[in-house]
């Protein structure tokens, strides 16, 4: 069978960090474990090493599981935090609400999602207070979990103070805290804080830590800082088809990215490219960057006709997130020349003034 290689003239895109290839460190790790016969289902030395490195990374004795993708990570983690008659509070733009085809409700046997608002994709504590206290009768699904996205769907990052306010609200109402960290590495790089400060020290019970978007081929880590909540989570993974038989291919890339600061370095590069892209777009006439660029996403409002011109020119990006603005996402391998190419294309697409 003849392999068809991509068009060498095809430009790098800004639609999603999922478009990017595997980073060299992750690829090397998969190649390194691709020899000999090794115990399956996670009973291998690489999976053990990856779990221990994550414990060192967060500086706590957390319980770690590896699954294939973010939808499974979020859905199974949330199912472990509540019963079917409970509810989960999240931002109205959260991925668990808008992009997971009802998987969180499915895997938790019907747990209802309650939607909060908040500026910049961040949950407003007053909204949590309202949703939790509006009713307390048996006919209302009892709020049990507060789910936060870090970085948010609008590319912003919760500060430790913001997390503390939400933690106080959660503790007041006996809510467990889940963090969707599909782009947690970018949040870390954006705030330049220790991982513990944005997770268990901020009261997070369980984090779904994204590996795919930071350069892995496949794989997310579900990390329980509250180890009691991890009881029988391995059975949930098995039942949901998320227990990898050749687990070493999911776990070994974590080793390569957690050593020598590789993971945060890749995330910091993606953030830097997004910052440059946002600054250069904001300088163009009629172009507005509509949210602070705090991680690796740029949300922009273009003059009429620009989006259509860019798409006709072969540029891919999403426009369905937020209020219809274009979302431009940078990745670990976004180059400065990619940014320059896009800026030139936007400049050429702008309507003439004068």
From TrEMBL:
Segments forming domain Aromatic amino acid beta-eliminating lyase/threonine aldolase: 13-301
Q: Does the keyword Lyase apply?
A: yes
Q: What keyword terms does UniProt attach to this protein? A: Lyase, Pyridoxal phosphate
Q: Which residues form a coiled coil?
A: none
Cofactor(s) annotated in UniProt: pyridoxal 5'-phosphate
Subunit details: Homotetramer.
Q: What is this protein called?
A: L-threonine aldolase
- Taxonomic source organism: Geothermobacter hydrogeniphilus
